[in-house]
User: Which sequence fits this backbone?
């Protein structure tokens, strides 16, 4: 990684549910990582007189034929109508082929009319080369960055399907998306209908520092597109990475829905035991944080085990990315007689329990979809034993247990696909401190 610039305007804090750990090892602890902006905000360069650079990428595969493509086109037209002369737009569609319908269009009255005509002429074609369409949209944006017309851009994808042409592996899609984000090109996805690949759209959106949404009607879709546009106006950082360094043999698991950085990422914390997760965009005046599950190795009595955290952002800056100071928090090894009865941080513990529930939902969604209810019930039985013990004594114990049982009763039985999709999106967003950009939100999962 290039030279880094330390910046104390954005800081991480680490809070543990318990501070003591058993010297013989195998203690499980939860850590809440909070992102803190102590005063003022950092502005992206794009806010200084430059309009937005957007690539709108639309799925024109056969499965979109009819109501879904009509909804996507209608929403896209309304979205384009809200852009201004300072904004620059490219329009791409994909099926098994990829077509650039408009590129580097200034969104004045004439430009908007040109793009809208191209949108209305879209017809369904054949298969689903999702990666091809998305990467072509990113290439259109990259050319503007290379020509100094813009210094960052956003690719917005509307799709209903499962990619069956081109790159289809979610890990590879994530690698490409995070690499584009490091160049200043972000990505978001609006998934339409009930049969898209969650893993594929999340790989593109999360790797691209954006969000993925579930929408079906034109009103919903245009709300999501417009919401994405409004969110970009409030971004302090679009490509934030959380680096966590621990002692050797400490196991680190992310309970929040944040992916690990690709293996090629080089942490700024020079530690072979560093784990790096992509937090994506940091939005002004909103919360950002994550919950980690740590399993600690044995250690010396009264010795310590360090957990270091650092934030890295603005990785596309030619002068090198910005980094926060390193937060250094330590567990203390104790005998069992001191470790077992220790008090705990109730706020962190409740946050961990809620994140635990969201993690279970995300983990079991595919099993429920496949109808493997034996496996779902077995997993709930295993988790229930530990979850009830963890919640015992918390002020929110009854509420947490009731929520756990509610989720269990839903997931051990068949669910309508629409409800399953909404439930999955809801728990993903809540674990990432994100809000549903639809004005009313969806209640159909309940």
Assistant:
């Amino acid at each position: 990684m290039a030279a880094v610039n330390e910046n104390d305007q954005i800081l991480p804090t680490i809070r543990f549910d318990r501070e003591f750990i058993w010297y013989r090892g195998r203690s499980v602890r939860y850590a809440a990582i909070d992102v803190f902006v102590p005063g003022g905000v950092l502005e992206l360069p794009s806010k200084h007189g430059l309009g937005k650079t957007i690539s709108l990428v639309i799925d024109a595969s056969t499965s979109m034929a009819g109501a879904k493509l009509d909804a996507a086109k209608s929403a896209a037209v309304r979205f384009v109508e809200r852009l201004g002369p300072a904004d620059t737009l490219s329009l791409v569609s994909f099926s098994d082929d990829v077509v650039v319908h408009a590129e580097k269009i200034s969104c004045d009255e004439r430009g908007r009319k040109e793009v809208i005509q191209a949108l209305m002429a879209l017809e369904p074609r054949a298969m689903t080369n999702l990666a091809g369409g998305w990467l072509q949209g990113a290439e259109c944006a990259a050319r503007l960055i290379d020509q100094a017309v813009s210094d960052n851009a956003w690719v917005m994808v509307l799709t209903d399907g499962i990619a069956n042409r081109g790159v289809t592996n979610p890990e590879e899609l994530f690698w490409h998306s995070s690499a584009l984000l490091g160049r200043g090109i972000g990505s978001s996805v609006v998934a339409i209908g009930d049969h898209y690949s969650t893993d594929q759209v999340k790989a593109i959106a999360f790797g691209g520092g954006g969000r993925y949404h579930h929408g079906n009607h034109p009103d919903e879709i245009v709300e999501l597109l417009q919401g994405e546009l409004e969110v970009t106006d409030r971004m302090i950082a679009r490509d934030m990475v959380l680096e966590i360094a621990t002692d050797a043999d400490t196991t680190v698991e992310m309970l929040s829905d944040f992916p690990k950085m690709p293996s090629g990422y080089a942490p700024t914390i020079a530690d072979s035991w560093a784990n790096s997760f992509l937090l994506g965009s940091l939005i002004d005046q909103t919360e950002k944080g994550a919950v980690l599950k740590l399993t600690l190795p044995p250690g010396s009595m009264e010795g310590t085990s360090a957990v270091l955290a650092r934030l890295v952002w603005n990785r596309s800056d030619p002068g090198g990315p910005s980094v926060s100071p390193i937060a250094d928090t330590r567990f203390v090894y104790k005998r069992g007689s001191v470790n077992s009865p220790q008090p705990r941080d109730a706020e962190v513990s409740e946050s961990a329990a809620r994140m635990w529930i969201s993690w279970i939902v995300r983990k079991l969604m595919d099993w429920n979809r496949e109808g493997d209810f034996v496996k779902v019930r077995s997993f709930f039985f295993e988790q229930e034993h530990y979850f009830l013990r963890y919640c015992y004594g918390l002020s929110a114990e009854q509420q947490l247990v009731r929520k756990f049982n509610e989720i269990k009763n839903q997931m051990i039985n068949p669910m309508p696909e629409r409800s399953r999709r909404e439930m999955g999106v809801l728990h993903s967003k809540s674990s990432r401190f994100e809000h549903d950009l639809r004005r009313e939100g969806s209640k159909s999962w309940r």
Observations:
- DSSP finds eleven helices and 17 strands in the chain.
- The two ends are 45 Å apart (CA to CA).
- The longest helix spans residues 346-370.
- Residues 5-36+242-339 form a domain with the Immunoglobulin-like fold (CATH 2.60.40.3670).
